[in-house]
Amino acid sequence: MMFKLNKKLLISVSTAAVLSLGLSACMESASPTKSPIQTKKDIDGGVSYPVINGKTGPYYVNEQVARDAKNIRYGRVPTAEEYAEWNSDIMPDGTGLPEGQGSVSDGEEIYDAKCVMCHGDFGSGGGGYPALSKGNAYELHKTLTNQRLKPDTDGPVRVFGTYWPQASTLWWYIKDAMPHPLTDSLTDDEVYALVAFVLNANEMEIDGVEVDEDYVLDRAKFLKIKMPNRDGFEPDIYGPNGIKNVRTYFANPANFGAQTYDVKNPASRCMKNCQEPTAKVAYIQGAGISDFHPPLSEVRDLPVEKESTNFDVKKAYADNCAMCHDTGAAPAPGDKPAWAALTAKGMDKVYENGLKGTDTGMPAKGGSSLSDSQFKSVVDYIVNQSK
Question: Are both 101-222 and 313-385 of the same fold?
Answer without folding.
Answer: yes
